Amino acid sequence: MVISIMNKKGGVGKTTTSTTLASILASKGKKVLLIDYDGQGNATEKIGIEDKEHLKITLNDVLNKIILEEELPKKEEYIINLKDQNLDVIPANNELYALQNNLVNADYRELILKQLIDELREDYEYIIIDCLPTLGTVLKNAMVASDYIVLVTNPETMSIDALPDMIKNINSIKRKGNPTLTIAGILVTKADGRTNIEKVMMRELNDTIGKEYYIFDSVVPATVKIEEAQAMKTTINYYDNTSPATKAYIAFTDELLKIVGDIKG
Question: What is the pTM of this model?
């Protein structure tokens, strides 16, 4: 099952959600692959992989092999196993920014990532994709390759305003190239819960998009603990398992599994 974490707006907690979801699923005994699909390489770094700019093989190298119709490297050459978390990762760094240009003249350019994932599906119960914060052919690749999408937003105007455009693009891909693609729901992160403007934005979200798409009951609170975990190159659930953010992410994971179906390991 392939689940992409998306929003075209950056800074909403997308990477934190991707890495934490992957980590929690792995802690439940699931066989999980995390794909860093963002040239910033934040998921690679935040999950604990050192020196991302000097990795021998990254996601960009593998996707370029597919574009050029060359033989793929062995899986153990481009998949890093984090033994302490029982989690596999395909890392990325700033080389991935070249992917957009490389896709321009590629045959079936919106199917490149799907070709890679099709090679890996049978090895994993869950594949989590941390997507780049933009729209375009690169992101469409993730939509075509996914079964479900989780949209992440802050309770802020710019973040929520980005959702309708994202939903429009997802539904376009659903009609034209991936008829089973489903928006699993919308996760609110970095919530304070005390300001009037935040309460207004949450009402707006529920009264508009919430009428058609599921909004997760779990809301991830704003907390310095997440930044501390990132500085330590780990996920919040490993850094502080008593944190309200950890509890929120565990509750979100359980909600998500009820929606997408829990694959029994």
Answer: 0.95
